[in-house]
Specification:
heterodimer; A: alpha/beta; 2 helices; B: alpha+beta; 7-stranded antiparallel sheet; 5-stranded antiparallel sheet; 11 helices; 23% strand
C-alpha cells in the first residue's frame, strides 16, 4: 500500500479549502453519537505537523478548512471526525491555490 | 410554538428547529412520564407533493438531567432514514395508504433510537416506522389507525412515537410580535402614535397563529423509575430526587457540501444547532446577539445568560407599551432589583418554602431545563391551563402539559406576579394578575381557540390536520392598507 504525501493527498482528495478567516466554532457538546458512529467537536484533536499518517485509498469525503493562515491551523473533516493540524506551509499553499 | 424561528440561524433550518417541549406525568398512566419534543414547525398541511418529514441529516435528542448539574444523565437519540419506493413518480403515494406497509406509500421514514446512560450507549429501537403525513380522505382514509400503528416500544419498556401531529401550542403570534399587542388589552396599548384600524381601540379575543398547522413530534412515555438517579420510583414531592430536568437538542454535521447535481455530502463532527427547555426562553429572554450561541450550548453553562433573566427586556417594555397599567412593575424595574423570581422559576426550579407544598428544585445550578417533580400526581379534576399560577401544581412550571397556556403564564410572571413570591412587600399590578392572550375562555378551558382536540392517551397531541380540508378554513381578511 503506497503512502501518499500530504501534497498528493491534497490533490487526490475531494477537498474544499476555505481560506477566509476563522470559522466561528460552537462549544463542544457531550454528544456520544453512537447512532452515526459520530465524533463531536470535543473529539477534535490538535495534531502537530507530521503527526497525521495518511495512506491507502480514501473513503468518503475529506474536507480541509484553513482556519488561520497565520498559525497554519487546518481542520480536516472526514466522516464524523475533525482533526486539526498546524502546517503554515500547507495553509499558505491552499490559500494560493484558492486564488 | 414556544421556540420556533426564535434565532436567526435556526429560523432557516426547520428540520432542526425545536418548536415545543412537553414533560408531564401521564394522566392515564401515572407511573410514567411523557416527554414530547416538536420539530419542523408551522407546517401548512397542504404542503405537498413533498410533505414534511424529519431530517435524515439531523441528530435529534431528548436529554434528561436527574442530579441537577445541567448535564445529560440520560439521552435518547433519534436518527431517521428516508426511503423512496419508486423514483419514477412525483407522487408521495400512488393510491390510498391503508397501512404502514402499504406499497402505495412511496416516501416513508423509519428511525432508530439510541439510549445513553452511565457513560454507555446502546440501540434500544430499530426500524421503527413514522406514519405518513395526513394528506386527505383519498390518500390517508383512516389516519387514526395509521398513527396508532406507529406507536412503538423501546428495549427498556418505553413507548415511542415519531411523526406528524396537530400543533397543540396556541399563541397569538400575529399580535404579540406586532410590538407587544395583546388583543384583549389593545385599547390600552400606546400605539406609538400610529393610525390603527378602529377595531384596535377596543378589546378583542386573540387569534391563534398556529391554527390549522402541524408539527413533527418525537414522543416518549417512560416509566418513572427509569428516570431517577437511584432507579427508585419517586413518591416524595419534597425530595429533590423526585425532580428531573428535561430539554431537547438537535445537531448537524459541521460541513455540508453540494455536488454538481445538488446532492449534499456531509463531513465532520456533530454540532448543536437547536435546544429547548422552558418555553419562550430563547424567543423572549435571550436577545438577538446571543440567540444562535444559546442554541449551540447546553444548559450546564446557562449562568452566562442569567443577567437576561434578572433584567428581562419584556418587563421593561410592558409599562411603556401599556402606559399606566403596570406602575408597580415600573417601580420594580427602576429599583434595579434583580428578578430572582424568574431565575428561580426558569433557571433553578422553585425551592421548598416558596410555594406551600411545592418544589421543583434540583439545587442551585442555573440551567434552562423543564423541571418536573414526578411525585406530584396529575391533576385529573379541573386542571388549570395556567398551571401553578392557577393553583394546579401538576402544570407549568412543573413540567409542561399540552394544554398549558405557557404564554399567559410567562407574561404574568414577567409582569411581576411571581416577584411577590420572593418579596412579600411587593404587590403585583392588578393587570398583571389577569393579563392573558385571549385564546381561552378561562383557566379551566383546555381546548383553546384553534387547537386540535387533544388525545386522552399517548401521544396526547391530536391527529394532524389534513391538507385536503385545511385550505377550506383558510379565510384571512385581506387588508391592503391601514
Amino acid at each position: 500500500m503506497s503512502h501518499l504525501s500530504r501534497r498528493a493527498f491534497l490533490t487526490k482528495s475531494s477537498l474544499a479549502a476555505a481560506t477566509a478567516g476563522l470559522l466561528a466554532s460552537a462549544p463542544a457538546t457531550a454528544l456520544p453519537g453512537l447512532l452515526a458512529g459520530a465524533g463531536t467537536e470535543a473529539d477534535a484533536a490538535v495534531a502537530e505537523e507530521g503527526a497525521v499518517e495518511l495512506g491507502g485509498e480514501l473513503e468518503g469525503t475529506v474536507v480541509a478548512h484553513v482556519r488561520d493562515l497565520t498559525t497554519g491551523e487546518i481542520s480536516i473533516y472526514s466522516g464524523t471526525q475533525e482533526t486539526v493540524i498546524r502546517d503554515p506551509g500547507m495553509a499558505a499553499r491552499l490559500a494560493r491555490a484558492a486564488r | 410554538m414556544s421556540s420556533h424561528r426564535e434565532a436567526p440561524e435556526i429560523s432557516k433550518d426547520p428540520a432542526a428547529d425545536s418548536a415545543d417541549l412537553y414533560a408531564f406525568v401521564s394522566p392515564d398512566k401515572p407511573d410514567t412520564v411523557t416527554i414530547i419534543a416538536n420539530y419542523v414547525p408551522l407546517q401548512g398541511p397542504a404542503g405537498g407533493p413533498n410533505f414534511y418529514e424529519f431530517g435524515d441529516d439531523v441528530l435529534y435528542q431528548i436529554d434528561i438531567d436527574n442530579n441537577g448539574d445541567g448535564v445529560s444523565d440520560i439521552i435518547y437519540q433519534f436518527q431517521f432514514n428516508t426511503s423512496v419506493g419508486n423514483p419514477e413518480t412525483f407522487l408521495y403515494n400512488t393510491g390510498p395508504i391503508g397501512n404502514l406497509g402499504d406499497a402505495h406509500w412511496n416516501r416513508r421514514q423509519t428511525y432508530r433510537v439510541a439510549k445513553f446512560q452511565h457513560q454507555a450507549g446502546r440501540i434500544v429501537g430499530s426500524n421503527l416506522v413514522c406514519p405518513p403525513c395526513n394528506i386527505g380522505p383519498l390518500s390517508t382514509p383512516n389516519y387514526e389507525a395509521l398513527a396508532g400503528a406507529a406507536v412503538g416500544k423501546l428495549a427498556d419498556g418505553e413507548r415511542v412515537f415519531a411523526g406528524q401531529r396537530a400543533d397543540g401550542f396556541y399563541v397569538d403570534l400575529g399580535a404579540i410580535f406586532d410590538l407587544g399587542d395583546l388583543r384583549p388589552f389593545e385599547q390600552a396599548h400606546n400605539k406609538f402614535g400610529v393610525s390603527v384600524p378602529p377595531q384596535m381601540n377596543s378589546p378583542a379575543p386573540g387569534i391563534n397563529g398556529t391554527k390549522g398547522l402541524n408539527v413533527h413530534s418525537i414522543a416518549l412515555q417512560i416509566p418513572k423509575a427509569l428516570l431517577t438517579k437511584s432507579g427508585v420510583y419517586p413518591t416524595d414531592p419534597s425530595s429533590r430526587s423526585s425532580v428531573i430536568g428535561v430539554w431537547t437538542s438537535a445537531f448537524r454535521q459541521k460541513v455540508r457540501m453540494l455536488g454538481s447535481n445538488g446532492s449534499p455530502t456531509y463531513a465532520g463532527p456533530w454540532v448543536q444547532v437547536s435546544r429547548l427547555g422552558n418555553p419562550l426562553i430563547n424567543e423572549v429572554i435571550i436577545p438577538l446577539g446571543d440567540k444562535d450561541a444559546w442554541n449551540a450550548t447546553g444548559p450546564g453553562t446557562d449562568s452566562q445568560f442569567t443577567h437576561y433573566y434578572n433584567k428581562p427586556e419584556l418587563a421593561g417594555l410592558l409599562p411603556v407599551l401599556y402606559p399606566g397599567a403596570f406602575p408597580n412593575l415600573d417601580a420594580l424595574n427602576k429599583s434595579g432589583k434583580p428578578r430572582a423570581d424568574l431565575v428561580a422559576v426558569l433557571l433553578t426550579g422553585i425551592p421548598p418554602g416558596v410555594v406551600p407544598g411545592f418544589q421543583n428544585s434540583m439545587g442551585t445550578t442555573q440551567a434552562d431545563m423543564l423541571r418536573l417533580n414526578m411525585a406530584i400526581p396529575p391533576t385529573t379534576s379541573s386542571p388549570s391551563n395556567i398551571g401553578l399560577l392557577g393553583g394546579d401544581a401538576a402544570g407549568f412550571p412543573n413540567g409542561r402539559r399540552v394544554f398549558d397556556d405557557v404564554t399567559t403564564i410567562e407574561i404574568r410572571a414577567i409582569a411581576g406576579v411571581t416577584y411577590a413570591l420572593i418579596d412579600k412587600s411587593y404587590k403585583p399590578d392588578d393587570v398583571a394578575t389577569v393579563v392573558h392572550q385571549g385564546l381561552t375562555s378561562g383557566p379551566n378551558d383546555l381546548n383553546a381557540e384553534g387547537t386540535a382536540q387533544f388525545l386522552p392517551g399517548f401521544p396526547y397531541l391530536g391527529q394532524p390536520y389534513a391538507g385536503w380540508d385545511v385550505p377550506a378554513d383558510d379565510t384571512p381578511t385581506m387588508v391592503s392598507s391601514y
